[in-house]
């Protein structure tokens, strides 16, 4: 599918009611109601705090794909992209009709509704659901496992979001989108199951490189049976980790949302139109592994040192705010900033000309009487 077509589909089907990073059950409730006439929307379980967990199932084909988003409650970009994609499947569209006839798709749009409401990685019991695949100690983990066993997918999409710290390799290119075909054993054997996931990732990467060249990364594939992707891969179901990362000046992840949307459509189109054997996985190994080379802001040449600032994401009422916090004051020659300021050897000060120190939360700095604001 051509970029022009993908961009047009996104522009005409983007779900306007979903914006920004704070997405939770109340946001998607009216969207689920709208779908019930054309898709199977059912409550598949409840969270620790009793919030409903839903699945959406559609399509009539033999190839079965299971997706879940917001396993980590504060990773919402993929949820937005899922609903953008669903808007296409709600209408008659010859561009994607073959996907519906070749595939059956089941989506859990918010697996961790408690975490989504509180804007936290964890569930209400402060458990990381992506480390609970073996123990199944949490109701949300049990829900996902039951849907996995009942639906018996041929492919799994594990949809996540990643921090702004990641670079695509040891470069100054942000990892805007990252993928992984998880290991299915401690030896990290390149099995046929892994190759099938790698083949699909390779196809998505071809499309992304045309738009965000050198801004796609691969996660480390160390094996952990407690991680859901590893566990499902170990069950011989090709599983793909999607990670929505940072694009320049896109802290609300609206541009990244489009790249995830495109990747979802591209991958479904490829699965629907081909027999996936894993024979065409070679390009996967050319994608660089993620490194941690970025800070949100770097102030260079501050009297022989550099200052690194990260944004803390804090929920204030129902509003997500980005709070700039000083993380390091040292030589940062091996790191990059999404925004960089050159102090040219001058002093840098905070409010009321205060000296800066690690741990300070600051909205701006003064450099040679010039104010630099850090508000998103």
UniProtKB/TrEMBL annotation:
GO terms for biological process: proteolysis. GO terms for molecular function: metallocarboxypeptidase activity; zinc ion binding. Residues 11-271 form the Peptidase M14 domain. Belongs to the peptidase M14 family. The keyword Lyase does not apply. PROSITE patterns: PEPTIDASE_M14. Gene3D superfamilies: Zn peptidases. The active site is at residue 243. Its cofactor is Zn(2+). It comes from Psychroserpens burtonensis. Keywords: Hydrolase, Metalloprotease, Protease, Zinc. This is DUF2817 domain-containing protein. It comes from the Bacteria. GO terms for cellular component: extracellular space.
């Amino acid at each position: 599918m051509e970029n022009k077509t993908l961009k047009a589909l996104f522009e005409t089907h983007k779900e306007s009611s979903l914006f920004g990073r704070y997405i939770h059950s109340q946001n998607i409730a009216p969207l689920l109601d709208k779908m019930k006439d054309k898709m199977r929307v059912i409550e598949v379980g409840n969270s620790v705090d009793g919030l409903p967990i839903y699945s959406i199932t559609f399509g009539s084909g033999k190839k079965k794909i299971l997706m879940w988003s917001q396993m980590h409650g504060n990773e919402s970009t993929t949820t937005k992209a899922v609903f953008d994609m669903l808007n296409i499947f709600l209408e008659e569209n010859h561009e994607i009709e073959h996907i519906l006839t070749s595939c059956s798709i089941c989506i859990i749009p918010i697996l961790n509704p408690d975490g989504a409401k509180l804007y936290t990685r964890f569930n209400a019991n402060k458990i990381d659901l992506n480390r609970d695949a073996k123990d199944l100690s949490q109701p949300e983990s049990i829900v996902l496992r039951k849907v996995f066993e009942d639906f018996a997918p041929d492919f799994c999409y594990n949809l996540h979001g990643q921090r702004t710290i990641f670079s695509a390799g040891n470069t100054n290119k942000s990892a805007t989108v990252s993928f992984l075909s998880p290991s299915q054993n401690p030896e990290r054997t390149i099995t046929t199951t892994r190759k099938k996931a790698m083949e699909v990732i390779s196809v998505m990467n071809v499309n992304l490189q045309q738009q965000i060249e050198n801004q796609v990364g691969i996660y480390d594939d160390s094996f952990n049976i407690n991680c859901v992707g590893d566990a499902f891969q170990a069950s011989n179901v090709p599983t793909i980790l999607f990670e929505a990362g940072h694009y320049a000046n896109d802290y609300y992840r609206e541009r990244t949302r489009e790249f995830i949307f495109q990747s979802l459509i591209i991958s479904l189109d490829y699965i629907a139109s081909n027999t996936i054997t894993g024979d065409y996985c070679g390009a996967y190994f050319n994608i660089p592994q993620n490194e941690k080379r970025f800070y949100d802001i770097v102030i260079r040449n501050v009297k022989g040192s550099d200052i690194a600032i990260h944004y803390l994401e804090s929920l204030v009422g129902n509003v997500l705010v980005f709070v700039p916090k000083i993380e390091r004051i040292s030589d940062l020659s091996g790191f990059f900033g999404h925004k960089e300021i050159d102090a040219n050897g001058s002093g840098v000060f905070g409010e009321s000309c205060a000296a800066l120190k690690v741990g300070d939360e600051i909205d701006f700095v003064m450099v040679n009487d010039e104010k630099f604001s850090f508000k998103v």
